[in-house]
Each structure stands twice: as C-alpha cells, then as structure tokens.
Amino acid sequence: MNDQDGCPEAFDEDAEYEAGDKVSVDLDGTTSLVWQCSSDVHQARYCNQQVPGNEFKLGWNLLGHCEGTIAPTASPDFVALTEVGNGCPDVYDPTTDYESGDLVSVALSDDASGNRGVVYQCKSWPEGAYCNAGVNFAPGTDNSAMGWSLKGSCDGTTAPTASPSPFNGICEWLNGTTTVTIDAWSKTALASYKSGTRVRKGGDVYKCKGYPFYLWCRSAAYEPAGSGPWGDAWTAAGACAAV
Fold it and tell me: Shortest CA distance to 126 belongs to which of 53, 232, 8, 16?
C-alpha cells in the first residue's frame, strides 16, 4: 500500500462526511490506514452509514497507510503568481452556489491590508460539482484541486458590474386544457418535485425526468443549469414568455 505522507483526522462515527473526505483508522497504535469517501455522489451517501472497510465495500475507498499527521499545506507564493484582472473577485463564500467558470478570491493570511488575494476558478463539470461540496473542498485547501483551478493573484477590489435584469413576468404552460404556472426552482420545494414537474431558472424552463431519474430532482446537487450533474435529473424545456 502507498504511504500517504501523514494521517488525516481519525474516523468519527458521529461526524458528517462528504465526497472526497479522507480519514484514518488506527491499526496498531503506530500505523493507520487512510480511507477516502467516494467521489461518486451515489456512493458518497454511504460514508455516513458505513464505517471504512465495511463488508459491503460501500462509500469508502482504501488509499494506503500513514504515520504521524499531515503537514499543513503551504500557501501559494503571491510574488510568483500572475496578476489576474483589475482587482480581486468576491471572496469565496461556502454558502454561495458556484457554477463552472466562476472566479473567487482567497485573502492572504499574512496581508495586513486585506487587499491582496489568490484567485481560483470553478472547473467545468464533472469536477465543478466540488465547488459546492463544502469547506473541505474550498479553494486553497488540501482538496481544492478537485473543483478549483489556481488562476493567479489579485490586488484591490473589482469594480461592480450591473446585474442582468431578472425575469419578472408570469411563466405558464398549457397542460392539456389546464394552464399551469411555472415556479422558479427552489431548495425549499425539493420534496415536491416529481416526474414532469417544470421549473424555471430566470427565463429558462426545465422539466423533471421520469422514473428513476426524477428522484434526483429532489436533491439540491442536481439544480437545473448548475455546476452539478443536473442533466441526469432535468431536461431543458424551452424558455418562458412573459404573460
């Protein structure tokens, strides 16, 4: 087995794990095995149901062995990076939903002014799904490269740009003889989505696929037109016309 150059945190049955998380399991008080939660969204759900090395081989993949602890990741050398744009994009926020191509900045910890940072860009699908996978995959962390590309450095702030005008009409479609209003996709409505449900993102309409794919319509990770595998659950269904 490969030496993993230090051990991640020990597996904890009370912790919540996500795709890509690494844990260690002690063997003899000196050496431990390193396990990683599967990057497959279907398998990753088992990481909070099964222990590493479970008899069903669900959720966890064995990476190798380790001794000691993982050394902290060194910050990128600001001086050696190419400056990107005229100012820093918005600082990374784990509560924001990012899409492929989005730029974020991470402030340098040793910069007292707070005006210098490092710029990262969200990768395209499927890697881009990790841009919304939580702080364990945040730009600048050990797992950063799974979803983010290091683009360069930035100084100061980027001048704000005008936001596109939101769709403000009523979006409708004819279901047989009944006119149905198409509501905007919402995390609060996930449980109500089923085969045939239509939602809109801005002025674009998306339709929930049939069985068994409609089950994924109820997961925020499959948000229509997002950075995740939304095409597994939704299909593009035209555009809204304001009524």
Answer: 232
Do residues 7 and 45 both lie within one domain?
yes
Burial of 138-173, coded b for 16+ CB within 10 Å and e otherwise, reads bbbeebbebbbebbbbbbeeeeeeeeeeebeeebeb
Give the count of domains, the chain: 3
Are residue 148 and residue 184 in the same domain, yes or no? no
Q: For residue 167, what pLDDT is reported?
A: 62
Residue 162 counted as domain residue: no
**Separation in Å, CA 23 to CA 26, 126, 206:** 10, 23, 38
* Integer Cα distance of 74 and 111 in angstroms: 15
Q: Residue 190: its pLDDT value, please?
A: 92
Cα–Cα nearest to 202, from 239, 161, 234: 239
Is 71 among the domain residues?
A: no
Q: Is residue 234 part of a domain?
A: yes
Q: What is the pTM of this model?
A: 0.42
Query: What count of Cα atoms within 13 Å lies in the side-chain half-sphere of residue 72?
Result: 3
pLDDT digits over 131-179, tens only?
888 888 888 887 888 888 888 888 776 544 444 445 667 888 777 788 8
| Residue 28 pLDDT > 90 | no
DSSP bridge partners of 201 = 204
58 with 84, same domain: the answer is no
Tokens (6 digits) for 113: 């002014």
**Which range of residues forms the domain containing residue 54?**
2-66
99/93 Cα distance (integer angstroms)? 13
